[in-house]
């Protein structure tokens, strides 16, 4: 099923990171709701165009499914960092109920990623390209820090 | 007021760390309930003797006031580390609603304390001495890591 923001035949759906995000999102689906869904449909809520973003009010607390998407995204980044550096990467996400917080990824005693989260209600990316771009940036930065301070990452 | 676990005239109540914990605990008291309480009484729930511990069931989720005590304790440790090393120390606590989780303190990109939390329902110390002992141990360890990897702590 092609959604209005992701084409079913998009080559990006085969990107290893995108596949990892899909795996992570599917793993949170305890009731099997996603079983009959295509990857496109599972990923769809992560893609927030300007129009979509505008429709989501930042009122009240972000719901559990939104928060689980944030976690799926940072879990997937951890997996990627882990695969590239060969050391265990652990994500830790702290959110106040209003949707503000901090996401970090640690390797050994080293913080390799540190992001302030705001308006988690609207967590998403303009397009699949933007999502991959962001991930590449975060991963590259993390790997540089690990290379610079390998001893701490191995603690 | 002397409680059954802390003596009003205990010299430990003047210990800088104990005073800091009291400050942190009082800061969570938005309704002024503690205003008329002595430090003894404010600290009292943090001291869990074997008998007291046995009386607290690990059933259901730990309540907010218990969690705020955990936070007060690690905030106070952060303050102490900050004072001793001259760099900002940030605590981050992640708890599942069942009372399991992880507490870390970061300085720059360095994790200077990392503790697994279990049965937060029963968070406390055998005595005020034990509390100070634990804090001294954690602080000493944190300062060693900072000394060993000052460059990362300054990132």
Can you give a write-up of this model?
The structure is a homodimer of 155-residue chains. Chain A is globular and about 45 Å long. In chain A, β2 (101-107) and β3 (110-117) form a beta hairpin. Chain A has helices at 16-27, 39-43, 50-55, 64-85, 128-148, 150-153, and strands at residues 89-95, 101-107, 110-117. By secondary structure, chain A is of the alpha+beta class. In chain A, strands 1-2-3 form a 3-stranded antiparallel β-sheet. In chain A, α1 (16-27) crosses α4. The longest helix of chain A has 22 residues, at 64-85. The A-B interface holds A 92-94, 102, 104, 106, 109-112, 114, 145, 149, 151-152, 155 and B 92-94, 102, 104, 106, 109-112, 114, 145, 149, 151-152, 155.
Radius of gyration of chain A: 16 Å
pLDDT averaged residue by residue of chain A: 88
The main sheet of chain A comes to: 3 strands, antiparallel
Oligomer: homodimer
Structural class of chain A: alpha+beta
Question: What is shown here, in short?
Answer:
The structure is a homodimer of 155-residue chains. Chain A is an alpha+beta fold.
Question: Can you give keywords for this protein?
Answer:
alpha+beta, 14% strand
What is the topological layout?
2 copies of one chain form a homodimer.
Chain A: H1 16-27, H2 39-43, H3 50-55, H4 64-85, E1 89-95, E2 101-107, E3 110-117, H5 128-148, H6 150-153
Antiparallel strand pairs in A: 1-2, 2-3
Helix pairs in contact in A: 1-4, 4-5
């Amino acid at each position: 099923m092609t959604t209005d923001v992701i084409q079913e035949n998009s080559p990006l759906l085969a990107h290893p990171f995108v596949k990892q995000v899909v795996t992570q999102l599917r793993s949170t689906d305890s009731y099997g709701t996603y079983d009959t869904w295509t990857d496109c449909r599972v990923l769809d809520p992560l893609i927030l165009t300007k129009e979509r973003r505008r429709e989501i009010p930042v009122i009240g607390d972000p719901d559990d499914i939104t928060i689980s998407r944030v976690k799926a995204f940072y879990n997937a980044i951890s997996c990627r960092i882990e695969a590239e550096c060969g050391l265990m990467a652990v994500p830790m996400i702290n959110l106040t109920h209003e949707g503000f917080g901090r996401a970090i990824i640690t390797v050994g005693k080293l913080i390799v990623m540190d992001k302030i989260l705001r308006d988690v209600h609207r967590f998403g990316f303009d397009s699949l390209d933007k999502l991959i771009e962001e991930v590449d940036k975060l991963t590259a930065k993390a790997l540089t820090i690990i290379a610079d301070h390998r001893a701490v990452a191995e603690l």
